[in-house]
């Protein structure tokens, strides 16, 4: 009888997987920090942003500041979990990045360039975390995350 070798760590099976995880964590950290800065700007001085009258989604800019501040703080915390390799952080990273994308879209007329940057960073986070999750599905032979 031969003993089966222990399962190799994820990074050993797919050398790029560790890089994608770090990429997702860094991008989520950057998006979170940008969202925090945006939130502080909205709370401290809501006259920093241009208020449009004919936008379908009109909200108080101070309220949007709080939304961005909270989303940014959660994104930074989840990115720390991604660096630790936590499974909850991968799922949470996709959810938080999706909320950052939605918040960025809804506040697009107030700061278009900043919103597009946040949407792009968050889209890259979703991509990176889903690519890694898809590899887990293929490797484990079943649906869902292990």
From TrEMBL:
All copies of domain DUF7144, residue ranges: 21-132
Keyword tags: Membrane, Transmembrane, Transmembrane helix
UniProt signal peptide: none
Transmembrane portions of the chain: 20-44, 64-83, 88-107, 113-133
InterPro entries noted in UniProt: DUF7144 (IPR055568)
Protein name (Swiss-Prot/TrEMBL): DUF7144 domain-containing protein
Taxonomic path: Bacteria, Bacillati, Actinomycetota, Actinomycetes, Kitasatosporales
């Amino acid at each position: 009888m031969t003993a089966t070798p222990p399962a190799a760590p994820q990074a050993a099976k797919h050398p790029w997987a560790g890089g994608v995880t770090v990429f997702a964590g860094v991008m989520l950290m950057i998006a979170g920090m940008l969202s925090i800065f945006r939130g502080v700007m909205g709370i401290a001085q809501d006259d920093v942003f241009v208020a449009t009258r004919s936008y379908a989604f009109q909200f108080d800019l101070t309220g949007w500041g709080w939304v961005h501040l909270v989303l940014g703080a959660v994104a930074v915390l989840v990115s720390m979990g991604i660096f630790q390799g936590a499974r909850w952080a991968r799922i949470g990273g996709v959810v938080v990045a999706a909320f950052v994308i939605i918040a960025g879209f809804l506040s697009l007329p107030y700061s278009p360039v900043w919103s597009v940057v946040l949407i792009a960073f968050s889209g890259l986070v979703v991509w990176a975390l889903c690519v890694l999750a898809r590899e887990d599905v293929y490797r484990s032979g079943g649906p869902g995350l292990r």
